[in-house]
Amino acid sequence: MRTQVGLWIDHRKAVIVAVTDQGEEIRLIISKVEKQPRRSGDSPLKGPYESLLAKADDSHYKSFTGHLNTYYDAVIKYLRDAESILIFGPGAAKDELKKRLERENLGERIESIEAVDKMTDRQIAAKVRRRFPKQAD
Predict the structure, then answer these.
(1) Cα–Cα distance for residue pair 72/9, rounded to 1 Å
(2) Sign (positive/negative) of CA torsion 68, 74, 75, 81?
(3) What is the rounded CA–CA span in Å between residue 64 and residue 35?
(4) Nearest residue to 14 (alpha-carbon basis) of 31, 33, 36, 1
(5) What 3-state class would DSSP assign to 88?
(6) What is the rounded CA–CA span in Å between residue 40 and residue 3?
(7) Cα separation, 107 vs 105, whole angstroms
(8) How large is the average pLDDT for residues 18-27?
(9) CA 100 to chain CA mean position, Å
(10) Which terminus of the chain is less hemmed in, N or C, by CB atoms within 10 Å?
(11) CB 6 within 8 A of CB 88
(12) What is the CA radius of gyration of the chain?
C-alpha cells in the first residue's frame, strides 16, 4: 500500500493528512508546548521579587525542548510508513521536524518544505490532495 503524507505543523499543533490507495485519513496532534513563561497577577510587579514568579530561563528552555521532543516523536510516529512527505507551516517547527526526520533516517522521503500561513483543516487536506492525487492501479 502506497502512503503519501502532507503535514501542516507549528509549535502548537500538527495536522497530518495521509493519502493511501484506500482513501484519506486526517489526524490532529496537539502540543502542550508553552513558549513564554506566565507571570501571576494582573499587572507586572516592580521590585526585587519579580524574578521569583517566573521559572529561570534555562529550566524553562529545558522544559520547552522536552515538550517539543515529545510532540515531534508523536508526529514522527505517523510519518514512519510514508513514502513521500510534504511539510508546510508558518514557523520554525517545519525545519526543526526536518532535522529530526533526517536524524531518524527519514529525510530522503521529504518531497518538499513550504512556508505557508495559517490554514483550516479543509485547506490543508485540499493542498495535500492536489500534491498527491490518488493513483489509479
Answers:
(1) 10
(2) positive
(3) 7
(4) 31
(5) strand
(6) 47
(7) 6
(8) 89
(9) 11
(10) C
(11) yes
(12) 18
pLDDT of the residue at 137? 45
Beta-sheet strand order (sheet of 110-115): 23-30, 13-20, 4-9, 84-89, 110-115
What's the pLDDT tens digit per position in 13-22?
Answer: 999 999 988 8
Residue 20 confidence (pLDDT) = 86
**Grid cell locating 5:** 503524507
Cell numbers at residue 90, please?
508558518
Q: Which three cell numbers stand for residue 120?
A: 483550516
Long-range contacts of 118-122 (CB under 8 A, 24+ apart): 118/90, 119/8, 121/15, 121/26, 121/28
